[in-house]
Write a structure and sequence with these properties.
Chain B: Residues 586-604 have a biased composition (Polar residues). Chain B: Residues 441-481, 518-628 are annotated as: Disordered. The complex is a heterodimer of chains A (209) and B (659). Chain A is mainly alpha-helical. Chain A has helices at 12-21, 32-38, 43-56, 64-72, 81-91, 101-113, 116-127, 137-149, 163-175, 185-193, 198-203; strands at 61-63, 98-100, 135-136, 182-183. Chain A folds into two domains: 9-113, Recoverin, domain 1 (Orthogonal Bundle), CATH 1.10.238.10; 116-203, EF-hand (Recoverin, domain 1, Orthogonal Bundle), CATH 1.10.238.10. In chain A, helix 5 crosses helix 7 and helix 5 packs across helix 8. Chain A starts with 11 loop residues before the first helix and ends in a 6-residue tail after the last helix. By secondary structure, chain B is mainly alpha-helical. Chain B is built from 23 helices and six strands. In chain B, the strands form two sheets. Chain B has a four-stranded mixed beta sheet with strand order 2-1-4-3. Chain B has a two-stranded antiparallel ribbon with strand order 5-6. The longest helix of chain B is centred in the middle third of the chain and has 59 residues, at 399-457. The radius of gyration of chain B is 38 Å and the shape is flat. Classes of the chains: A mainly alpha (209), B mainly alpha (659). Chains A and B meet through helix 3, helix 4, helix 5, helix 6 and helix 7 of A and helix 1 of B.
Amino acid sequence: RSSESRPAGAAGWGAAVADSHAAPWHHRPVSLASLAQRTRFSRQELQLMYRGFKNDCPSGLVHRAAFREIFSQFFPLGDASAYADLVFDSFDPGGRGCLTFEIVIQGLSVICKGSSEEKLDWAFRLYDTDRDGFISKREMVQLVSAIYDMLGDSVWPRVHPCDAQLHAEKIFDAMDRDGDGAVTFQEFVLACRRDRDLDRELDCFDTLL
Amino acid sequence: MAAVAAWLPFARAAAIGWVPVAQGPMPPPPLRDEDHKSDEKLIISVSGRKFVTWRNTLEKFPDTLLGSDEKEYFYDEDSKQYFFDRDPDLFRHILAYYRTGRLHYPKNECIMAYDEELAFFGIMPDIMGDCCYEDYRDRKRENNERLFDDKDSDAENAMPHSTPREKLWRAFENPQSSTVALVVYYVTGFFIAVSVLANVFETIPCGVEPGTNLSPACGDRFSVAFFCLDTACVLIFTVEYLARLYAAPQRLKHLRAVMSVIDIVAILPYYIGLFMPDNKDLSGAFVTLRVFRVFRIFKFSRHSMGLRILGYTLKSCASELGFLLFSMTMAVIIFATVMYYAEKNQPKTGFVSIPAAFWYTIVTMTTLGYGDIVPSTIIGKIVGGVCSLSGVLVIALPVPVIVSNFSRIYHQNQRADKRKAQKKARLARIRMAKNASGAAFISSKKRAEERQRLQETEIGGAECGSIRGSGAGDDSGSSADRREDVFELQHHHLLTCLERTTEREFVELDQLTQLPVCSSQQQPQPASPAAGSDASIAGADAELSPGGPAGCFKGRWRRGSREARTYLPGRGRAEEGEELNRRPNSRYQAGPHSSSATLGQQQLSQSRPTRTIQTRTTISSCTNRPGPRAPERIAGCDWALLSTWFLLLMITSIVCCTH
């Protein structure tokens, strides 16, 4: 089990030196067989993903900063750190600040190989950062801004600062049927299913490993 | 970290969050390739050592050789692996870059070898990790400096066509380049020494003047002699200065150069004194001007490398020296002030003012302690003690920096000189080896041609022996060589085409010695067999070392046998002979050569008597000598010394005559 993080400015120079010699924050995942059993990934897929995971995070733990970096590599033109934070938080409800391989794989198992309901459930949790069961307008704006941040500058038509806000408000107003300023899960699902082929669209994010 | 395929599912899954807010439908996913293998291991064989890695690992960096399709060029179908004919030890580091994403520099590897590997595999050295980057940069810089040094000295030797002005400039800048330059070097050195010594000796009192009790200075007693000596020196210096000014490529810049300023300062006082009226009022000022004659000693810095290095060191340590000065000043002011106020009320004290206390402080801090000013109060003595202790510290601080800088630059220079000295020998040995291999190649080519001709004309073996006495040409070998591969044959054919094109012929040197010798040896081009023909057309061999005077360091060099005017076929330029390095063992010379002006003679490729080659627009004037060896002439070095002494003798006699 990973050790708890010590407060940063606790004891100064001596403690900092001692920390560097302290036991590394190491985490070894459960066996491959049990993980293959528990999740919907095959052994080969798990092997491939763990090799990449271990390569980038030798200690077996992904911290927020490392996760941001990894995520940003897929979006080189823009700034993906805000969206990465949202994703990180959606995987890490306990707020421990780091993810283990099991958490990642279990989360991915749901998202990649789950039903549309499960995927939407995850998406809802992604949007609902304060975990109160409702999506407020502020949360919607936050998410849409994070998405727009990933674009960067070299897009056309150019991104205006208020574009994200307008987009978010439009979506929010469309979702919020009863106009109470909060979107529940049912409203969310209804809005998503409305005039789009949700299942196909959700499936198109499957990755072939 | 690189975008590994392993994290892609995560990123794509996270994109599900965009679907609810998307304003349009998502595009369909890319086609699924049923044959897609998730990941496979690649075998890379580097000179036989096998490295195995995942394909994904290599594809992390798609703009390198291993990460792109370029590696398919090296795919060996038979063994199903990628084969690279490179150094396996260095490949380890390349592969580590793919595995960890960080490039490291192994400290025990040669920087050039490592750089070549990086260039081959398409990896930029700039992405090196911070742990190794500084070390890499340092060694790279050191290497570049060394190459630059060598190239610099080569470049100045490789100018075939120079105007007299350029020749003069080169003579001044590099005394080794010709005899005249060396003579000038020694003569000016001698006169600088004479001038400085005269300045010193004319102030010594020499002998008591009869009739009085005075012993005047030598300068007053033999004023005429000293004046003549001074005149001679100034004449030489003036001529030298004007010559340098004329020869300088950029006269204005040369005027501002330090050495030029020193030259002016050295000779101006004389002219000022010459043209000034013999006025008692001004003569005091004139005497002061004579002080500037001591600057002549700085002219020695052209003659001494160590002095130049010292100057360069001081310049490069300017900040440390500045710091030293600043801290000394601060300390001096502080201590002088305190001493003054401690001692000012003592009777008959030396501390009459703070500036007067400066002198005491400086003398104390540098631990000189003349004793002309001493403190008498207790406080003054305490402060004086502290002053001397701190003085030692303040001075000791920047000195090691300066010393280490000087040491580093001096050793660098020593190494550069040693390299230059060794380079000639090294190059000579390399050239001999290359000549041997080039000659062997040409003789094998000749043999092949013989065999072909034999086969064409069906002449018997007896005539074969009469045509040529080539190196190893005998018929018994021909059957064994019949299996010459196509490559060799085509190479020979290429050289033959070259011969036809230029109407020349490749010869071997042992043929050459039986022929009229028209010129003395010349340094051959770096002749690898393939390059042997190309080198003859290529440009000047920049590695050729200058002639005789440099040989002073190695003992006597033999001069070339002749100084005939020779024609450079194909280049059309005649060169005067000068002394050369002799190459007794060089065996192969291709036809035309180019050379630098100072080296002079070229070797001609002679036509062999039995094989008449078409046209030889060659030797314009060349005398037939019975044997290849010429009478030895006195080495260039001796010429320099001889002429120097002769000149000095002449000048001394002139001076004596005028007296």
